[in-house]
Amino acid sequence: MRIELEKRPDVSKLFAFVSPLLALALTLAFGAIMFAMLGKDPVEALDAFFVEPLLEVWSLHELAIKAAPLILIAVGLAVCYRSNNWNIGAEGQFTIGAITGSYLPIVFYDWHSPLVLPLMLILGALGGALFAAIPALLKAHFNTNEILTSLMLVYIAQLFLDWLVRGAWRDPQGFNFPVSRDFAPEAVLPAIWEESGRAHWAFIFAIVAAVGVWFMLRYTLKGFEIVVLGQSERAGRFAGFSSKKMIWFSFLFSGALAGLAGIAEVSGSIGHLQPAISPGYGFTAIIVAFLGRLNPLGIIASGLVLALTYLGGEAAQLSLGVSDKVTRVFQGLLLFFVLSCDTLIYYKIRIVWSRVRGAA
Amino acid sequence: MSIFEAILLTVITASTPLVIAALGELVTERSGVLNLGVEGMMIMGAVAAFAGAQMSGSPYVGIVCGIAAGALFSLLFAFLTLTLVANQVATGLALTLLGLGASGMLGEAYVSVPGIRLGEIVIPVLSDLPVIGHVLFRQDLIFYLSIALVVGVSWFLFRSRAGLKLRAIGDSHASAHALGIQVIRTRYLAVMFGGACAGLAGAQLSLVYTPQWAENMSAGRGWITLALVVFASWRPWRVFAGGYLFGAVTILQLHAQAFGLGIPSQFLSMLPYAATIVVLIIISHNRRTTLINTPASLGKAFVPER
């Protein structure tokens, strides 16, 4: 038996739409098998994982909280990946954004002003962008592989945060716990609709960013430049676009969004700095970007789906007693299926049963 | 045993997994496939080796389990990128994400279970030599395997017919295909060899380096491995030298922490990652030499004309 691919004359519009849904369905099917193997009733488990978190209002707020950083980061990554710049270090840019944004509420704890919050957000975005500037600089001027450098910087950022909260920025009243002092009320990102749940403004930032980038990619020259340079650097050069400038643009842009996501998460959801501020949002956002077809509007949908895997993981831990690692497995499987189903967009798949190649 | 010998031993222990995993990735990349999933395959090898050793009571069974887990896990990558021609970069990332998640889940029962350390094999006569006898000839099986792998891979790539074909595929899959060389089949084997090596490297982590299981215990070594292959400009002996250089940086960092130089431990822990970046800069800044050394088909999908 052999699997043969035949290139479609045109990209299949049908499968471009169907393939993410197919990937979701396959992930659910494999999830059911996995739960069965863990000795849980698959229907009950999938219900607890993917349906129950959607039935209560407070839980929908939690969904928005988890989706916000995923969407923000993934929208930036989509710009990178479309232009063929492989920024894998969003987790680090997220962390540094959280740190630079926290500078005001921690170091200038006594400064009370309505300016604090907007300045924090700007500082966070700047921090993320500057951190992303490192792999950009190295790629643009030293031809260094950006996948490896941006990834190494994730470990460096996490160690730096660890040092800060155990050292210079540790809360003097924190009973020696490695946390910073709690942010003052004016440094906390407000809730969108306080009566019903905790969801805060980060979700609105995410939607605005997604729609904005969608518009940029679809209707502006910059968007055209991104797509052309991503598909063929040579063609881009003939059109007068500079791939060096695109490296800078895509990294700074995605870094700024990741940094904004970082400070928004710390300010809106956690309220202080601590050694672990992200359950892997920067890496999960890679899946979000691909599941959303690198299209910002698709990313809003896929961000909500991946946020659901986080919520479902927490719920399943409580109600089914399965490990929260199930979340990661689901996410990994999903990315696998997304990538395999994408083949259907460009190719027809034929399974050849005979050993002899048939006359074509 | 002198302090010097003790330090040398720890350097070897820290370097061995890097050398093994990097050799596997080198063969994979020489065939034209970029597999970024080393971290995922390594951690799967680590958990499988630990589990295998626990269940059987023998670390040698653990090694076999680690190798098998790495090779089988790499098949997922091979199927997606070679048969379904999915994007290699994204698929490699998927492999790492899935590996980190799945190993965490599989290994949950083994957290804080005392591990089984792989024993040393004393080579008669040679082990009585001063200094090097203790360091080089009273080692565990995986260390000896790592040396054999350096020699073997080097011989295979540059002295054997199959190695010549593999390099030809990596440099131009279209021409190799035209010559009747089995591109896809060879790449499947190369990817699985890379997976097996990553699995063996993982086994070293959970059976020798720190004989226990901890979540994410590969700690970015898979990624450093990828940098090592670039550093070595796709040559086995340079992988060996580079692996030991990185192992030395890791150990230096630990010793510096023990001496208490007044530098916060977190900054010392950054050293291997920072060193990776610096090395990458030095190696890559000359665009021409990188281009000459990189397998020309690296990362490019191959769809045979039918």
Automatic annotation (TrEMBL), chain B:
Is the keyword Cytoplasm in the record?
no
Q: What is its main location?
A: membrane
What stretch or stretches form a coiled coil here? none
Q: Which UniProt key words apply to this protein?
A: Cell membrane, Membrane, Transmembrane, Transmembrane helix
Output the InterPro entries linked to this UniProt entry.
ABC_transp_permease
Membrane topology per record: Multi-pass membrane protein
Q: Which GO terms describe its molecular function?
A: transmembrane transporter activity
GO CC list: plasma membrane
What compartments host this protein?
Cell membrane
- Reply yes or no: does the keyword Membrane apply: yes
> What is the protein name for this chain?
ABC transporter permease
From the broadest rank down, the organism's phylogenetic lineage runs: Bacteria, Pseudomonadati, Pseudomonadota, Alphaproteobacteria, Hyphomicrobiales
